[in-house]
Design goal:
This is Collagenase 3-like. This protein has 391 residues and is α+β, with helices and mostly antiparallel strands. It is built from six helices and 22 strands. The chain has three domains: 28 residues, no CATH class; 173 residues, 3-Layer(aba) Sandwich (Collagenase (Catalytic Domain)); 121 residues, Hemopexin (4 Propeller).
């Protein structure tokens, strides 16, 4: 009996199966689906969710995606847009500006960022690009929009293409069921035009999938802010952070002051915490985020801006640690907060009395052993154990 050698076609087919199996495994791992290396209903449902048209996982070997704008003032325009659409666009850019050193202005002639409705196989608006857009837009559902990354050339127009076939809610208010928030999607795509990749954090604007229910008012997550400030820097002036209102009539603002302090020069630190290769240093009302791998950091941010559950008379953090569940235990003044990570949403607020401690207790530090036991040191010499299972 002759033994047939696999033909070239058979080899390619076998290799393709391996590639597809590997890609499927990566997809399931990325979206925290129990990895089975086979298509199942959970995986298919995830694939059908509304999403951005760019890759879920960035190809770090593609250097064109690692560039940023060489200038800090950028211009934009939306091709053939009505007044309400322009309001939404302005609100989206207003979410990025106060959280970085970038500024944005709308101009109709030769903008840096050009947005438009497109559908199916389509071309770019910029006439200097004669080729078809390499990413066609599908029918309703699936891909909602896509954008191009900066390439380091300040004269090269970046485009955002929004799928015209989708049912859009073109207002700053909360979108009704079975519609997509244009504000949320555009804010995401603007992030790409500024050089940001997709985030693994589901509470991030830059997460690849559009959430089924969007929290209002829309705001950048801490992860988004850290990633936009890393290449461009923080807003070094007193900044007004604008969040879109629930109606188009009123805009609410909160003022945030960024102070230019070097954490290496600080003499007294309140809290030091390491999470996911980032070192967080808290001092008074401010916190620094330091990338451990790259030893880089920007100006501090105001803690209460991103932990809005803190009391109005908040002064400083006294201790913090991460529980085995991933949630955070944060000690601030006379309260103990159980906070989800990375969304920083409050799960539970406890007083010192709830822990059997007098309100005059002074917390020195808190320690998690990563072996199921956590301890606090208070009043300089007393050690108490915390039952993490009950909080």
């Amino acid at each position: 009996m002759a033994i047939l050698k696999p033909t070239r076609c058979q080899c390619q087919s076998r290799n393709m199966k391996q590639v597809l199996r590997h890609a499927l495994g990566l997809f399931q791992e990325y979206y925290q689906i129990r990895r089975q290396d086979e298509l199942n209903e959970i995986t298919l449902d995830k694939m059908r969710e509304p999403r951005c048209g760019l890759l879920d996982l960035s190809d770090q070997t593609d250097r064109s995606r690692n560039n940023i704008w060489p200038k800090k003032h950028l211009t934009w325009d939306f091709h053939f847009a009505d007044e309400e659409t322009m309001k939404v666009m302005q609100a989206a850019f207003d979410l990025w500006a106060p959280n970085s050193s970038l500024s944005f202005k709308r101009i109709s002639l030769n903008p840096d960022i050009l947005l438009s409705y497109r559908e199916g196989f389509h071309i770019n608006i910029d006439k200097k690009i004669t080729d078809m857009c390499p990413s066609p837009l599908d029918e309703p559902g699936g891909v909602l929009a896509h954008a191009s990354f900066p390439n380091g050339d300040e004269d090269y127009v970046k485009e955002v293409h929004v799928d015209r076939a989708e049912l859009w809610h073109v207002h700053i208010s909360r979108n009704p069921p079975r519609t997509h928030s244009l504000l949320y999607v555009i804010t995401h795509e603007i992030g790409h035009t500024l050089g940001l990749h997709h985030s693994e954090h589901q509470d991030s604007i830059m997460f690849v999938m559009a959430p089924g229910e969007i929290k209002f008012p829309i705001r950048l997550s801490l992860d988004d802010i850290l990633h936009i400030q890393y290449p461009y820097g923080a807003n070094y002036h007193d900044s007004t952070i604008t969040t879109p209102p629930t109606t188009t009539a009123v805009v609410t603002t909160t003022t945030t002051k960024y102070i230019n302090h070097d954490p290496c020069a600080l003499r007294d630190l309140d809290v030091i915490l390491i999470i996911n290769n980032r070192l967080y240093i808290a001092c008074k009302k401010y916190i620094w985020s330091i990338n451990i791998n790259e030893n880089t950091y920007e100006n501090p941010i105001v803690i209460s801006d991103y932990m809005q559950f803190l009391t109005d008379n908040f002064t400083h953090l006294t201790a913090a640690y991460q529980k085995p569940t991933g949630n955070l235990m944060i000690f601030a003044d006379n309260f103990i907060y159980v906070v989800s990570y990375p969304s920083y949403e409050l799960i539970q607020r406890l007083s010192f009395n709830d822990f059997g401690l007098p309100l005059t207790t002074r917390i020195n530090t808190a320690i998690n052993t990563n072996k199921g036991r956590s301890f606090i040191v208070y009043n300089d010499h007393i050690v108490g154990e915390i039952d993490d299972c009950s909080t």
